[in-house]
Amino acid sequence: xxxxxxxxxxxxNSEQPEAATIEQAATLLRAGRLVIFPTETVYxxxxxxxxxxxxxxxxxxxxxxxxDPLIAHIAELETLQELVTEVPEVAYRLAKxxxxxxxxxxxxxxxxxxxxxxxGLETVAVRMPGHPVALALIKATxxxxxxxxxxxxxxxxPTTAQHAQADLEGRVPLILDxxxxxVGVESTIVDLSGEFPVILRPGGISLxxxxxxxxxxQPPVKRSKEQSEQALKAPGQMLVHYSPxxxxxxxxxxxxxxxxxMLAEIQKYQARGExxxxxxADEDVATFQESGAHIYALGNAPEQAATRLYAGLxxxxxxxxxxxxxxxxxxxxxxxxxxxxxxxxxxxKVIHSMLL
Length: 356
Ligand code: TXA
Ligand code: MG
What we know:
Helix content is 35%, strand content 17%. By secondary structure, the protein is α/β, with parallel strands linked by helices. The strands form two sheets. A ten-stranded mixed sheet has the order 1-8-2-3-7-4-6-5-9-10, sandwiched between helices. Helix 1 packs across helix 6 and helix 12 packs parallel to helix 13. The longest helix has 17 residues, at 255-271. It is globular, with a radius of gyration of 20 Å. The mean pLDDT is 94. The structure holds threonylcarbamoyladenylate and magnesium ion (MG). Residues 39, 41-42, 44, 68-71, 102, 104, 106, 118, 121, 123-125, 127, 129, 147-149, 186-187, 189, 200, 233-237 line the site of threonylcarbamoyladenylate (TXA).
């Protein structure tokens, strides 16, 4: 049983965080306690990365298996040198281009990194977040901060302090509320420990942007459900992840076919007396206005959809729907990360629409 504690939520200015608020949070972290804080991607559940007992609290609070390694968040490039055995030239190039920002680099871990952080792997994942609150907090703590997304294990990542509170109230002493996250999907994780740089998890920095700096960057390996469940390199990469509490399906196909298929699916569920939630683009809303489905509009650009996806899944979940249908988006740019998260939210359940 996890002990219930009082959770305080403090507002913090996301551009110029108040020093007193940051100090209060940093004091907790130095004392080995947990603090939820905003980053530009999603909210993080932070603990001092160099205190194993503190990092252990993260796994307990989330209900996360110890086999799933954590990202160490840093605020200065020098800290990277302490956490890894050697910083290759490509890491400096990527850091110069994308840090602070939504990029995580996997490199051989130094002795300083607790095994709990790496889940026993030889490598450690490191990121310098772009959010002023996150940077101020890491600096004030004076130590790297280990932080997974601040959700219960297997649930949707939080893009607001309220999402994090809904999942972890009573399990953390403090939540810093810096408003909604701007990127909305997690960082891109690149593995620089092997022969070729490869994306382990698509995210806030696109494959195209990475290749502009490092042309040899390899796209994520496509895995079947079975393979991904056995994947040991990045255990958090299993297909069922970031999931809403209700079954979801990704609907693919060209515009016209996709809308027709979604309408037919909605009717099918309604005929059984079930409530349907749909995640669509703004341009689709008119089509579904009379359908009786709960509609959550994600915007039209993939960037907007990435920012709103997790909030949309939570809203539909809370509306009490029995099934969620998601439209698909183009795979370029952030679209790759968006598709990855949609596939994870749906557990790989795809409906291929065909013109009748
Ligand atoms: O944007 C983000 O990355 C957010 C914010 C809070 O920074 N964090 C985040 O953490 O998404 P989390 O724990 O939900 O996902 C981190 C994933 C793990 O599931 C694991 O797959 C991968 O990072 N990872 C961590 N260490 C690794 C390592 N040494 N090798 C390979 N993958 C690793
Ligand atoms: Mg996560």
